[in-house]
Fold this protein.
Amino acid sequence: MTVARLGRSFFDRPTRIVARQLIGCELWTRDPGVERGVRIVETEAYVGRDEANHANRGMTRRNRSMFGAPGTLYVYRIHRVVCANVVTRPGQAVLIRAGEPLGGTRELWAGGPGRLCRALGITIADDGTDAAAGARIRFRPWRRRPRAIVSGPRIGISRAVERPLRFAEAGSRYVSSPRPWAGSAGKRPTSA
DNA sequence: GAAAAGATTACCT
DNA sequence: GGTAATCTTTTCC
């Protein structure tokens, strides 16, 4: 019997472990008449004592969801798009950066955190919802085992830029660029 | 109260 | 490869 969804205990673990193990898993949203899903191919971990973490300076109006139970969604707005994260330990979360469309998505392309949210219909209204138990959004275990998983520096940040907390499925064409396995100098790709 | 800074993306040359 | 768009939150005075 397969597990229907990833529950609380999956998320209540060290953030980088969760970020790595989410590769290949699926993220589904449900709206009246539509189910939309992607197979996750790229994530980033935002951990404790991390200058790039929105919660690094404690709780604020924006990041309060990051202190919710494991499995809580933290959705925030940046420029004109939103990005979705799932909480692990208090003040820590995994950013879902890219996915491979499975069905129902409006977009044929879910590469990049903003596009992924748009493809799944995730909005700022989903901030704080419980993806470990709630009805609208859930994570499912992988059905197709991911290939090798690679790691590299996170994207688009200006602090703690060197930490290899970005994870991706090796070779996936759905991963946003730069691709960790491309191996350009200074990117320090490593197998993870 | 004002100013700066984004965990991005699309479009420019 | 570079930069403008765009607007909320955060931070500083």
Q: What stands out?
A: Chain A has one domain: 8-191. Residues 44, 46, 52-54, 76, 78-81, 83, 85, 95, 97, 112-115, 154-158 of chain A lie near DNA strand B (CB under 10 Å from a C1').
